[in-house]
Amino acid sequence: MSDTLVNQSEHNQQSANKSKLWSGRSTGEVSELMDQLNRSIGFDQRLLKQDLRAGMAHATMLGAQAIILPEDAKAIVSGLQAMLADFEAGKLSIDLSVEDVHTFVELELTRRIGEAGKKLHTGRSRNDQVTTDLRLYLAQEIDDLCALLEQLIVVLNQRAEAYASVLMPGYTHLQRAQPVTFGKHLGAYSAMFGRDKSRLVDCRTRFMATCPLGAGALAGSSFDLDRKATAKALGFTGVMENTLDAVSDRDYVLEFLSVASITMMHLSRFSEEIILWCSQEFGFITLDDAFTTGSSMMPQKKNPDLAELVRGKTGRVYGDLFAVLTMMKGLPLAYNKDMQEDKEALFDAIDTLNICLRAFTPMIETMKPNEDVMRKAIGKGFLNATLLANYLTAKGVPFREAYNLSGQAVRLAHAADLTLDELPLAQYQALSPQFDDGLYPAIAIQ
Predict the structure, then answer these.
(1) Of the residues 173, 222, 258, 268, which is catalytic?
(2) Model-level pTM?
(3) Which CATH superfamily is domain 382-443 in?
(4) Active site residue 295
(5) pLDDT in tens, 130-144
(6) How far apart are CA 311 and CA 321, in angstroms?
(7) Catalytic site residue 2?
(8) What's the fold here for domain 30-119?
(9) Taking residues 160-187, what's their average pLDDT?
């Protein structure tokens, strides 16, 4: 092959690779399948706003440190601001043929402002760039999720107060145990979601404490970067000192996914109870039609599909957590391409938790307890048997003996198809002379 043909081939390949930030080393053609597998812009375009913000902070620092000319830094910042404005106005078209969002930003910036755009990447790598973007993105999403959790907590607390005197059976082992109030039951979930919110806040505080930008590919930069300035500009409180850790850390993703899994578990437990409560076997609650569906075959059905979907989607979020745990478990330091797999799992968990919370809150707000049904279930379940034992204990009967006598009373009432309130005093006194007229007020369920 002539030198002319060789040069032309190299030129064609360089043109084909012009959208790849790493194309300087490679001259061979990249497989289309490799390109498809490697391309992440289909999902990491979510990080566009964060990438623009981080780029502005980085360029400002480069200019202040005289690493690039001040006029170039100013042009870069102005160009990125214009891109952000266009994006927020819906006027920025993202080229899905490029490798990732970081490549798109640099190429689009260079198209707009010329050669100065090529200086944006000075002193940084996509390795520190992507983890910075991801932290900024996750911080905003956590803020939104905390707001949704707070809305749910407020509704639960309001409902708990409204139903503070509505009695219902409390359960252990899914067997009727002792009377509680519907308000107390709702309050238990309010406490759970309160812990979930605090875990999210704690997670956010930890990963926003240190900024990875400036760590480069793994070993920092030979430029005199002011990492503290970029960290402060982006809302971080400090910098990650160990640059190897900075680019390879995904603990914050795993921590969020762990918290999201726990939150979904709480939503799933609540969903399971709602599903049971609105069944004909329980009949404790009625759900608003807006949060149920019917059957295509059986016209009488009113299915609690929203609760069932939330229960089902819990496994999806668990899967996101285990996908990233599995991806990270065998990776040597520092960055590896496997870590690109963190984003789809993270985005999926965020989206799933977000829509579940947004749908769940109005379902709870419109849910109605069937008070009479709950009250009758208490009587049928002998839920005041513990009160009966306590009544005898207060009269000086040892608790274990009082427990056995109460059990015998339950057996008698069950055989006669009566409640403990309905069992005649004479039958109680046949068990023990300690029973007297004060029995019935002592075991009344109020």
Answers:
(1) 173
(2) 0.90
(3) Fumarase/aspartase (C-terminal domain) (1.10.40.30)
(4) yes
(5) 999 999 999 999 999
(6) 17
(7) no
(8) Fumarase C; Chain B, domain 1 (1.10.275)
(9) 96
